[in-house]
Design a protein that fits this description.
The structure holds two protein chains of two kinds.
Chain A (H helix, E strand, L loop, with lengths): L2 H10 L8 E5 L2 E5 L5 H10 L5 E9 L11 E8 L6 E8 L5 E3 L8 H12 L2 E3 L52 E6 L11 E7 L2 E8 L7 H6 L3 H9 L6 H16 L5 H29 L3 H22 L8 E2 L2 E2 L7 H23 L3 H7 L7 H6 L5 H5 L6 H4 L20 H24 L18 H6 L1 H13 L6 E9 L2 E9 L7 E5 L1 H7 L1 H5 L4 H10 L4 H5 L1
Parallel strand pairs in A: 2-5, 6-7
Antiparallel strand pairs in A: 1-2, 3-4, 4-5, 8-9, 9-10, 11-12, 13-14, 14-15
Helix pairs in contact in A: 5-6, 6-7, 7-8, 7-14, 7-19, 8-9, 9-14
Chain B lengths: L10 H8 L5 H11 L3 E5 L2 H10 L22 E5 L7 H10 L5 E5 H6 L20 E3 L6 H16 L5 H4 L7
Parallel strand pairs in B: 1-2, 2-3, 3-4
Helix pairs in contact in B: 2-6, 3-6
Classes of the chains: A alpha+beta, B alpha/beta.
The complex binds iron/sulfur cluster.
Iron/sulfur cluster binds next to helix 3 and helix 5 of chain B.
Amino acid sequence: MSRIEEVKQNLSEKFPVGDFKFYYENDNDVVVVPKANILEVLKYYRENSFYDFLMDLTAVDYSKYPETQEGRYAVVYHLFSSKTLNRLRLKVFVQEEDAKLASATSVWRSANWFEREAYDMYGIVFEGHPNLTKILTHHHFKGHPLRKDYDANNQQHCSDVLPVHFDDGSRFSPVPGKDLVPLNIGPSHPATHGTLRVMAALDGEKVEKAGVELGFLHRCFEKMAETHPYNQVIPYTDRLNYCSAPMNNIGYCKAVEKMLGVEIPLKAQAIRIILAELSRVIDHIVCIGANAVDLGALSGFFYLFKLREQVYSLFEKLCGARLTVSMTRVGGMAQDPPAGWYKDVLETCKSLRKGIDEVDRLLTENKIWMQRTQGVGSISAEDAIMWGYTGPCLRAAGVGLDLRKAEPYYGYESLDFEVPVGTTGDVYDRYLVRLEEMKQSVKIVEQVAKNIPAGDYTIRDKSIVLPEKKDVYGNIEGLMNHFMLIMKGIKPPKGEIYDYTEAANGELGFFLVSDGEMKPYRLRVRPPCFAIYQSFPEQITGGLVADVISVLGSMNLIAGELDR
Amino acid sequence: MTEQKVDAFDLQDMLNSNVMTTRVEDWINWGKKNSLWPLPYGTACCGIELMSVMGPKYDLARFGAEVVRFSPRQADLLIVAGTITEKMAPVLVHIYEQMLEPKYVISMGACASSGGFYRSYHVLQGISKLVPVDVFVPGCPPTPEAVLDGVMLLQKMIENNVPRPWKDNWKGPEL
Ligand code: SF4
């Protein structure tokens, strides 16, 4: 019996599944659930531990889709079980006139911000949500920008900033008998490393109440993806988590390739692994370095950034760009690495190893570092899962989930590496996990760079990959092929897919809906730090204001990924 | 000096070695140019490259602009590095207005200069709509060398007292 049949049988014991739809598509199991049943189904799944994660929640506007659907909007849930590794997509259609739905916040806490985002982008109302307000666009913004009838180039200006407010929607107000002081950090503040805004009500040194505001770097990635051909979306993905740009390229291309049903050559897989793991190292470098600077350890920053420069030099040698490399293409890589590049990679690995050891000696047993980070921001495994944590922050809390091991891709299964796991989930554990992951990543890179498979760096399907320049300028077939592909674009078949990779911050998922045309109909990215950051106000409430900075740094919030 | 006899004192010699003539303006400009204190307004990917500009390898300190100040009151060079969204726009104006004279603005990268490849509903299409920009540095992100070049260009402008009509005629945000 296939998985989806099992799902059907299982649900039919509890629900009248006559109105449900079950299907299997692009390696994903999908259930279309009637609006009236969705909350019960979610509850059933969670309470009986079928799925412990609500990975993602988003919506799609089908008004311009070639085939009419059951309603204008669909709300899409992605469930995941960390025990059985099963995944399931639930879809609920809602009508335009009645775009309302029960909120899942009572079942999964992680639903909170995801629902707010769907409300902001599509205007879908989630009934029972504690604070259904805009999350990404500014407070003067009118309309819902991801609806198909909103023009991508229609800017609306904003002239002021909201006063201090909290996640439950309340404003700062004095409490009788208490001497509360409002505190506002950001959105332009050195400790927030980007564009985060943290607000708190302080009672002396203690945080009484906290809130965050995001969206200060909402650059409309998803709308841009809908208005650009598939390969032109790649540079936009670079700018999601710009501290480890190649990983986003890879995640996106992998999803599109899977949709097209193509397998990339072994050599391209190997290059992708090298890029991904080097990016993981520099991403963790920025995270640890910045976290340490905020707590006063400036020297660590200089040690670490020297290493990062070396990796950037490698990238520069590979393709000319340092930060935003855009080296992948749908179907493989853009070009072969230059001669001697793998040797340089191995050399760099040596100095990375040395550098990481130095940082290890500098921080791991440093008294001040330990006192500032141990016991700060602890979280239990259950809570972490409830909030949708993935990546190093989840592993620090004691859940050994790493997609490179759990659902390996690109040959990770044959590589020798370990997944470090923490115990308490505090800032110190997160640091230790990241430090060890850097070492493991170096180990992976060394293994791969020593055994680069022979062969091509890309597939050679004329309807997917552009011909090489020498053919474009050298013969008529090449020229025609180039012209056709640029004008007509890559056209994946109609359908949808959710695909995921283990990025530096956790599960980076891409949910792609194709209408068979040259641009994605809908491209949703599941940003790992968005889910993690949701828990931040709760994590810092009751703690000291000095710990706010420590916790903030350990979550590795990259605004480009958070706000998209 | 004290050992020397007064009658051996040669006024011309003394002037040649210890005094230089200049105009007050030039002298002030020289000072301004060599002590630019930047406020790194890093919002996105360009901010990450700006870190490299400040970091060990490229080291902006070599050009007299290393005293990074996060308080606008203490800074005189605003480096806007990264995308400015509509939501961020009022914050940027607020920070610019808080800076004391003399003040300069460098727009680093395509996004800050024109919105870059984000022709989209929530991105400001260029910060020059809000604040007077002295130097635009192209790139996405610009290489650290390009940013250094931008800073040096600004220094030259200050040294030569290049007129800045965009600044002199600035009345506030256009929006
Ligand atoms: S110009 Fe490019 S690198 Fe700079 S902030 Fe914009 S997208 Fe990022």
